Amino acid sequence: MIKSMILSSILGYSGNVKQEITGVLYHEMTHIWQWNGNGRAPGGLIEGIADYVRLKAGYAPSHWVKPGQGYRWDQGYDVTARFLDYCNSLKNGFVAQLNMKMRNGYSDSYFVDLLGKNVDQLWKDYKAKYNN
Ligand SMILES: [Zn+2]
Question: By C-alpha distance, which of 39, 80, 33, 81 is closest to 57?
Fold first, then answer.
């Protein structure tokens, strides 16, 4: 998996290859330690958390969506990573706490537990903040 990701990065990416490979490794390493709600968490959230870690490590590539872009909070990858970054700005440590709650299961209500708002409201607030 990691090997094929690196290869596709090298073949398909004309920017800073070392930067891109490091970013891909952050993403893939996150999958090794993150919880997935015993398989019940949305796939887009899993991918979004992996890209969130990549973002916070300083390896968000320039082709990613900008903050506020995207159609759904659980669209995955960069879209969800930007949204999680917004959520974490409301409460530092949010993403780590969300991951911990996903150890044994998953519910959208985890957002309410941690931030006091449901995830659809948070998405609306996020879009409004960036006029999207
Ligand atoms: Zn992934």
Answer: 81
**How far apart are the CA of 51 and the centre of ligand 1, in A?**
8
- pLDDT for 29-72, tens place per residue? 999 999 999 999 999 999 999 999 999 999 999 999 999 999 99
The answer to whether the CB of 19 falls within 8 A of the CB of 57 is no
115 alpha carbon – ligand 1 mean position (Å): 25
Q: Which domain holds residue 29?
A: 2-129
For residue 2, report the distance from its CA to the centre of ligand 1, in Å: 10
27 C-alpha to center of ligand 1: Å?
6
pLDDT in tens, 64-73: 999 999 999 9
